[in-house]
Write a structure and sequence with these properties.
Number of domains: 2
Number of strands: 25
Bound molecules: nicotinamide-adenine-dinucleotide
Strand order of the largest sheet: 15-18-19-14-13-21-22
Strand content: 15-25%
Radius of gyration: 23 Å
Helix content: 25-40%
Structural class: alpha/beta
CATH topology of the largest domain: Aldehyde Dehydrogenase, Chain A, domain 1
Length: 478
């Protein structure tokens, strides 16, 4: 074992406040050039045991809410100080356009800043037990106590901010973390560990382990010193973690085939522009990316024509070029998968209005019409730059078509009808309904999380901290 900073050619594991470089390594690829940009260490079972042990032991040392606040705030500042460097890493490891990458770093800093603020607001409540006959001489209150060791497992698409959504609230609420970032995009998470180290985070409160997801997942879920799992990723893996976690706490932030309704009373230009932007962000690899659009038939032609115009103006290319709107997908096999889904839809009668072509790891932003709800591009999560435009006539009909999905993360609704908006708010089965915007709206302190196959539990620091603490009742017999 050697201690190394992550600036060495091989990035170490971060365990108990030390960098541990391994012989066994894995290459991280620049998703645009397909060249190797770094190597990360592959953790073995002993490393995972050490990381969990370090996390558990760190809980024995006092760590006050104010100390947590100070360190999280310093880490947020550290992210901004290294914003450009981190944005370049995101552009390379994800293939995310540089402007979007800078935006992700800025949002990650806000997530940590909000976590810092919430560290000072953890509170229980008074419980009026004296109201029960025979309990007149008693008083009670609740405390919110940390769950303990939290295993955090994160996806490739937003590898810095989604890590901050787990690490920030976990530290703010007095827990310790073993983080397993996605194998294809681990570098920004390792840099975050370096930022926390510089901010003075006590050793063991954050440990970062890299390697194969299924293997590390198995070691983490079979380690009884892990008290909670917080996972963002695919429903397939979410299901495995849920099964292996047993009776321990689990938060799951999973996929979606997000719908957005565009009603006949809305501003067509505005809604079409926003919809085009939010369908193709990060090459459509966003869990709330617009995938199913339901446009009222009276405005369909005008909406489609504007949306095509905006989509065709999007620049596809090198993520580091500031004029690029859409970069490569995470891997060629994903672009090939999307190509297969679009081709299948076309065989079943769908029409490609624009795009519909693959060039290596790129898939062009694609609008499909004449689609049916049971086509794969509508029914399953595409997680690529493809949007399907449907028409509808009736409010009730469109609500039931939006709900005819296994998923329920967020939905969008453009309308000026308060009546329709309230009806939709009550009936659409999602974690969040965004009125007069698309499903793709998120700020980091709002409650965020889905229903049905989109998962369970909420993120957003305040809400994640509720998941990451237990309510303990204290009764005083006076
Ligand atoms: P993924 O499920 O393939 O991987 C996610 C993480 O799980 C990675 O770190 C991976 O290494 C790890 N993993 C893989 N197998 C595992 C196992 N058996 N046990 C434990 N961990 C394992 O997901 P992905 O391809 O990285 O991300 C795409 C998915 O994430 C999409 O479905 C997307 O909708 C979803 N997502 C959801 C949200 C949300 O907030 N709801 C946000 C972003 C992405």
């Amino acid at each position: 074992m050697t201690t190394t900073k992550i600036s060495s050619p091989t990035y170490g594991l971060y365990i108990q406040g030390e960098w541990r470089e391994k012989q066994n390594t894995s290459e991280v690829i620049n998703k645009y050039t397909q060249e190797s940009i770094a190597k990360t260490s592959v953790a073995d079972k002993g490393d995972i045991e050490d990381a969990v042990k370090a996390a558990k032991e760190s809980l024995d040392s006092p760590f006050s809410p104010y100390e947590r606040y100070t360190i999280l705030k310093k880490a947020a500042e550290g992210l901004i100080e290294r914003q450009e460097e981190l944005a370049l890493v995101l552009a390379e490891e994800v293939g995310k356009p540089i402007e979007e990458s800078r935006g992700e770093v800025g949002r990650a800093a806000l997530t940590l800043e909000n976590s810092a603020e919430e560290a000072k607001r953890i509170s229980g409540e008074g419980v009026p037990v004296e109201a029960a006959p025979g309990s007149e001489n008693r008083q009670a209150m609740t405390l919110r106590v940390p769950v303990g060791v939290i295993a955090a497992i994160t996806p490739f698409n937003v590898p810095l901010n989604l890590v901050c959504h787990k690490v920030g609230p976990a530290i703010a609420s007095g827990n310790s973390v073993v983080l397993k970032p996605a194998e294809v995009t681990p570098l920004s998470a390792l840099m975050l560990a370096e930022i926390f180290e510089a901010a003075g985070l006590p050793a063991g409160r954050l440990n970062v382990v890299t390697g194969k997801g299924s293997q590390i997942g198995e070691w983490l879920t079979s380690n009884n010193n892990v008290n909670m799992f917080t996972f963002t990723g695919s429903p397939r893996v979410g299901q495995i973690i849920r099964e292996r976690a047993g009776i321990r706490k689990v938060t799951l932030e999973l996929g979606n085939n997000s719908a957005t309704i565009v009603h006949k009373d809305t501003d067509i230009e505005h809604s079409a522009t926003l919809t085009a932007q939010k369908s193709f962000n990060n090459a459509g690899q966003v869990c709330i990316s617009v995938q199913r659009v339901y446009v009222h038939e009276d405005i369909y032609e005008r909406f489609l024509s504007k949306m095509k115009k905006v989509t065709e103006a999007l620049v596809v290319g090198d993520p580091k070029d500031p004029s690029t709107n859409i970069g490569p997908m995470i891997a060629e096999k994903e672009a090939i998968r999307v190509e297969g889904w679009v081709n299948e839809a076309v065989e079943q009668g769908a029409v490609v209005e624009t795009g519909g072509k693959r060039d290596g790891v790129f898939y062009l932003p694609t609008i499909l019409t004449n689609v049916k709800d049971d086509m794969k591009v509508c029914r399953d999560e595409v997680f690529g730059p493809v949007v399907a435009i449907n028409t509808y006539r009736d409010e009730e009909e469109v609500i039931s078509r939006v709900n005819a999905s296994e998923y329920g993360l967020q939905a969008g609704l453009f309308t000026n009808s308060l009546d329709f908006a309230m009806k939709a708010a009550k009936k659409i089965e999602v974690g969040g309904l965004i009125v007069n915007d698309t499903s793709g709206y998120r700020v980091d302190h709002m409650p965020y999380g889905g229903v049905k196959k989109s998962g369970s539990g909420k993120e957003g620091p305040k809400y994640a901290m509720e998941e990451m603490t237990e309510e303990r009742l204290i009764v005083f017999n006076l």
